Hints:
By secondary structure, the protein is of the alpha+beta class. Helices cover 23% and strands 35% of the residues. The chain has one domain (31-245): Immunoglobulins (Immunoglobulin-like). The chain is globular and about 50 Å long. Mean pLDDT is 90; it is low at 1-26.
Amino acid sequence: MFNLREALLLGSFLLGGSAHAAEVKPARAPVVLELFSSEGCSSCPAADEVLAQLDAAGEVSGTPVLALELHVDYWDYLGWRDPFSSAELTARQERYARWLGRRIYTPQLVIDGQAEVIGSSRGQAVAAIQAAAQHPSPAGVKLQQKGGELAVQIAGLAKFPGATVLLAITERGLSTKVLRGENSGQTLRHSPVVRALRQLGVAAGDSYTAQVPLHLLADWKPEALRAVVLVQATTGPILGAAVLPLGKN
């Protein structure tokens, strides 16, 4: 039989154990996957498929992932002009080349702005995602659509002066029948393609808020669109990210 002192000690132990067991790590922002691809590149369809699989799964080992397919324009002069390519997306890949100290190539998959692998290697991609998942996301990002505007709220920026806030609009379900170039005769189906990418602002202080007009073109399918906000340090790492489907509004 327990005496009163023993009972109190046991109760204290059980309560302490319960409190410890109830500790939950804060949710990590999704690991951002940026695939630099081109419809003119014969090695890219395999990478597009890997990204599509990761996007469909939505997570790796319990960590959410956020897939972006960015089409560069330096393949456009070799027989086929990629309709989703832009010089702006090529410039983003060039910035990563400087930040990461790596060469430019396709298909290149950049993980959370901190590592890169060959985009067609699912094994390398999964390993890099798992490594990125070990690091916390310092910036918390919240998004809300209000009519034709996007409300953006970000916290946790005090230690990252000069961090940039970026907005990407992506579209799922896109495909192209390629008529020329290395993929001539193939119908290529894509993961969430970046339709537009722009900088919203630069962090100053601990938080950032903005009401952003959504410029959506008429030929984009509303039900397939998502708004993606990225917070990126001046040296490349993604500090936080969030995604919001736009088709429900």
